[in-house]
Amino acid sequence: AGCIVAASVNEAPADAADPDKRARYYASRARAGVQKGWPDLTIITPAGRVLFVEMKSAKGKPTAAQAELHADMRARGCTVIVG
What does the angle CA 10 – CA 7 – CA 70 come to, to the nearest 5 degrees? Predict the structure, then answer.
């Protein structure tokens, strides 16, 4: 309660099943400076602590890009949670 939560739009739209459309979507995100592998949620607690949360299904696991970025973020002192 009392947290500020920002959700990242990390997934291609459902209508981007076409490989070319999907490639254009991710290319436009890269041009816009979107960091590949960014966690799904950025949370700021009432005390000012910043948490990054990657949401996965029961069988899901972070992609290579996510694991690399999460490790880099943790090395910088960030709290990254995979749930």
Answer: 65
Look-up of token digits 């949620």: 41
Give residue 62's region: left, alpha or beta (phi > 0; psi -120 to 50): beta
Question: Distance between CA 28 and CA 82 in Å, rounded?
Answer: 27
59-23-80 Cα angle (round to 5): 40
Token readout for 37 is 């592998």
Q: What is the pLDDT of residues 19-36, one digit of tens each?
A: 888 788 888 888 988 888
Single pTM value for the model: 0.79
Neighbours of 70 (CB within 10 A): 20
